[in-house]
Amino acid sequence: MCHIGYNPAFVKFSSVFMRTDEFDFVLPERLIAQHPLEQRGASRLLYAHDDVLEDRRFAELMQLVRLGDVMVLNDTRVIKARLFGSKESGGNVEVLVERVLSEHEVLAQVRASHAPKAGSQLLLADALQVEVLGREGEFFHLRFVSGEDVLDLLDRYGQLPLPPYITHAADDEDEQRYQTVFARQAGAVAAPTAGLHFDEAMLQALRDKGVRLAYVTLHVGAGTFQPVRAEHIHEHAMHSERYEIPQATVDAIAQTRAAGGRVIAVGTTSLRALESATAGGELVAGESETNIFIVPGYRFKVVDVLLTNFHLPRSTLLMLVCAFGGMNEMLAAYRHAVEQEYRFFSYGDAMLIERQNGYVGRALPAAKNHVGQSPTYDSLLKRVRIVIRALCFFLRMRANS
Q1: Residues 6+ apart with CB under 8 A from 300
Q2: Are 355 and 49 in contact (CB under 8 A)?
Q3: What is the SS3 assignment for 11-41?
Q4: Where in the chain is the domain with CATH 2.40.10.240?
């Protein structure tokens, strides 16, 4: 097996060979969890390690962690980021805050029959005057005219932004359960869902067992729900998110490493924050932006074990999971999860994945992951074209170096 260190150029080169449809799978709609279970820790847990899949309960996580491990959790808090209102013309408008920029300004998605122009006014929740300052890419730059802090206004007038695959409007149950028990830093528009399984009793049990708990903050954006629409994954433009790594977390990881313990990331958001903060070779504390796109070929520098929920087909998060646990292995795990009727997505069940060492390659050619079919002439021709494109990309890289 070839062990390849992380090189952004290599990962981009290797991803040229990968089609987005290789990360597709068939998911019956009935397996998309619409509501949380009655108890946070009542979910199932698929444990993937050493080419083995074990069907477990989440409560059995206590048997799978070790004395001396450090578990890193994302303490972001979901804000009530959705607002409804009208434009000056009277047309309806829906606003989804993507990021709070300051006490009075935000970046937001705005849905309307016609996009509002810079300098125009919106009336949201029949109470909030909002000025449109302009556009920044797909987002609108908005200023709340009220003198109050925008987070306080959102908490009072906004609605919880449930994911698009949850079909009911947010209610009191969602306001409690679409939030981790350790949420502290307001700013996310989507929950770090792997953390939803923990209650206070389990967190205390982990401490009692000698597992160190550490925290990062990554404010999850709405882009986390977007499928990759490009034909080849290297063509996808990754969304950007803000994160912070405290010095206490850096120290906890260093001490764990020195003692021979493992780093367990609770959720892909914690993993992305840690790997982003190690771009220079060493894990460093501080705040920054990340648009890291982790695909098979990436060499992980920090995380040994990943606790995560089941992700959407063709999503960047599924690609990350395939990079971490092996592409063939993870796609097989997803087929197993569907066959065993695990619950998927935000309110669904969890996976515990031990990291594969090095680069594990791509999946076998498949359509919707139904393997065993002979490639047709057209599919072979498509692969030849992909190889030619990859060689051209490599030659351009060499010419520019």
Answers
A1: 6, 275, 323, 324, 355
A2: no
A3: HHHHHCCCEHHHHCCCCCHHHECCCCCCCHH
A4: 82-157
Q: What is the pLDDT of residues 214-249, one digit of tens each?
A: 999 999 998 777 789 899 998 998 989 999 999 999
Q: How far is CA 223 from its chain centroid?
A: 9
Q: Are strands 52-57 and 44-49 parallel, antiparallel or unpaired?
A: antiparallel
How does residue 11 score in pLDDT terms, banded at 50, 70 and 90? very low
Q: How far apart are CA 287 and CA 277, in angstroms?
A: 9
Task: Supply the pLDDT for residue 14.
Answer: 54
Residue with tokens 């206070």: 200
Angle made by CA atoms 341, 294, 315, in degrees to the nearest 5: 40
3-class DSSP state of 373 = coil
Structure tokens at 301: 């520098």
Q: Which residues pair with 78 in a beta bridge?
A: 188
- For residue 195 the two structure tokens come to 């953390």
Partners of residue 124 on adjacent β-strands: 85, 128
Residue 147 is predicted with a pLDDT of 87
Q: DSSP characters for 88-136? A: TTS-EEEEEEEEE-SSSEEEEEEEESSPPPTT-EEEETTTEEEEEEEEE
The CATH number given to 82-157 is: 2.40.10.240
Q: CA torsion, points 302, 303, 309, 313, in degrees to nearest 10?
A: 60
Q: Where in the chain is the domain with CATH 3.40.1780.10?
A: 8-78+175-387
Element (H, E) at 70: strand 70-74
User: Residue 344, class by beta-carbon neighbours within 10 Å (0-12 exposed, 13-18 middle, 19+ buried)?
Assistant: buried
Fold of 8-78+175-387: QueA-like (3.40.1780)
Q: How far apart are CA 212 and CA 263, in angstroms?
A: 10
Residue 160: CB atoms within 10 Å:
18
Task: Render pLDDT for 104-158 as a digit per residue (tens, 0 to 9).
Answer: 999 999 999 999 999 999 999 999 999 999 999 889 999 999 889 999 999 999 9
Q: And the tokens for 287?
A: 């705040």
Question: How far apart, in whole angstroms, are the C-alpha atoms of residue 205 and residue 207?
Answer: 5
| The token pair that represents 249 in the structure block | 């977390």
DSSP-based helix, strand, coil % in the chain, nearest 5: 30, 25, 40
195 neighbors 182 (Cβ within 8 angstroms): yes
